Structure to design on (268 residues):
């Protein structure tokens, strides 16, 4: 299937690490003008060089997605250079696997990274998309936001908010030829070369230590047998494949939808 993404202008927030990295590289392979909006600029530049090494077109713009002004400035830079934004992928997210009663000190960080960042991105790209009467917005949610998840309370609440926000914006923006959809990963593991210094998966971080305990080989095998009918945990590329479909014109009649890409962990 030809996804017809060549020369489209796509912004991927957090496009330098983990799932965002796979999304950026995938758009690069399709010939899109790939803009990586990344706080970790050196990590983003590594991905730019990978894309260019494959013959693609890419650039990194240092962006703090929790700051409306920073996102607005990034979008203006893209519009000044390319004249349009065809696709926005809101990928940035953060969690710390913490019991709810111990989460208060991180509430603002969770809300800013998992919900406000999506608000900022959508609000900043919509005017140009509405003017062009074309746009594809793909928000990365989480199965935690669909079902709730143990030790992911605030994160789950934010991701559920992303789902509701996406449906509401889809209703308002549809008349302008803009689609808005959500992809919800389940457990998706990154390798060391897929992370940057601002990633929650950075080796040695508190979250990494927790994940090493959660996803020890023994516990991973048990989790897969109990909860993943397809027999493995997710890979970043699994999510990227779904993003590319939603971003393409093959999905032009799909909007306001939430798709779990999680190997059957949730079925709804």
């Amino acid at each position: 299937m030809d996804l017809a993404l060549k020369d489209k202008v796509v912004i991927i927030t957090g496009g330098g690490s983990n799932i965002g990295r796979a999304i950026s590289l995938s758009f690069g392979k399709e010939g899109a003008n790939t803009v990586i909006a990344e706080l970790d600029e050196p990590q983003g530049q590594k991905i730019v060089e990978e894309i260019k090494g494959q013959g693609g077109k890419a650039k990194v713009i240092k962006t703090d997605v929790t700051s409306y002004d920073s996102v607005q400035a990034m979008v203006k830079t893209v519009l000044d250079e390319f004249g349009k934004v065809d696709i926005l992928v809101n990928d940035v997210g953060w969690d710390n696997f913490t019991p709810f009663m111990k989460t208060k000190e991180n509430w603002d960080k969770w809300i800013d990274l998992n919900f406000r960042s999506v608000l900022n991105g959508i609000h900043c790209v919509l005017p140009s998309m509405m003017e062009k009467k074309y746009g594809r917005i793909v928000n990365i949610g989480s199965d935690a936001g669909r079902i709730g998840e143990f030790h992911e309370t605030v994160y789950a609440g934010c991701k559920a908010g992303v789902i509701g926000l996406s449906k509401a914006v889809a209703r308002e923006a549809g008349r302008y030829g803009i689609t808005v959809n959500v992809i919800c990963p389940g457990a998706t593991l990154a390798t060391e070369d897929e992370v940057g210094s601002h990633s929650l998966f950075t080796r040695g971080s508190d979250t990494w230590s927790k994940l090493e305990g959660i996803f020890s080989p023994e516990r991973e095998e048990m989790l897969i047998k109990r909860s993943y009918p397809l027999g493995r945990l997710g890979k970043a590329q699994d999510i990227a494949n779904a993003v590319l479909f939603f971003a393409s014109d093959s999905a032009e009649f799909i909007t306001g939808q939430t798709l779990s890409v999680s190997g059957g962990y949730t079925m709804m």
